From TrEMBL:
Pathway: Glycan metabolism; pectin degradation; 2-dehydro-3-deoxy-D-gluconate from pectin: step 1/5. Pfam families: Pectinesterase. This is pectinesterase. The chain crosses the membrane at residues 12-32. It is an enzyme of class 3 (hydrolase). Residues 72-155 form the Pectinesterase catalytic domain. Keywords: Aspartyl esterase, Hydrolase, Membrane, Transmembrane, Transmembrane helix. Belongs to the pectinesterase family. Its EC number is 3.1.1.11. SUPFAM superfamilies: Pectin lyase-like (SSF51126).
Length: 161
């Protein structure tokens, strides 16, 4: 990654993902048009911008989504961190703002855990150059509960996209 902030289409894509996650029950209850040219109008008719629906959302979530922090993880050292775990550890306990952890391409061999007291974390990858999260331990070593590559215990988490 070249050290630039997420802007333009990337921000739009992020907003779309947030909207979809927050309003999936509403969207699922209405039929999605088969004609692809009508999907955007259909979506915009259901999901309004945050400014318009702010009073209908949890106040905690509205505050968290304003001015998100961006942390860059790049294995070659061009980011703030070279692994995902260090980036997550840098998020303060009781965090009250959205933190987008932008992860560069490559294979990340680490056990990733987002603890309960670190809400509002988003893990982002580049869909055109996807990252690979791996962890080579077994249930024999860690047990069935603690052997996952990615474990999330926090609120308002967004999965890697």
């Amino acid at each position: 990654m070249d050290g630039k902030r997420i802007e333009g289409n990337e921000v739009y894509a992020l907003e779309m993902c947030v909207s979809i996650l927050l309003f999936a029950p509403i969207v699922v209850s209405q039929l999605i048009p088969a004609d692809k040219s009508k999907v955007e109008a259909w979506f915009n008719g259901i999901i309004k911008p945050v400014k318009e629906r702010g009073k209908t959302l949890y106040l905690e979530l509205v505050k968290a989504e304003t001015e998100p922090r961006i942390i860059k993880v790049v294995q070659d050292g061009d980011g703030e961190f070279d692994n995902i775990t260090k980036a997550i550890e840098s998020v303060p306990l009781g965090n009250a703002k959205r933190v987008n952890i932008s992860i560069g391409p490559g294979s990340y061999k680490e056990k990733i855990r987002i603890e309960r007291n670190k809400p509002f974390i988003t893990l982002l990858g580049d869909p055109k150059n996807m990252l690979n999260l791996t962890f080579d331990r077994t249930t024999k070593q860690y047990g069935t509960i603690d052997c996952a590559t990615l474990t999330n215990e926090s609120s308002y988490y967004k999965r890697p996209i």
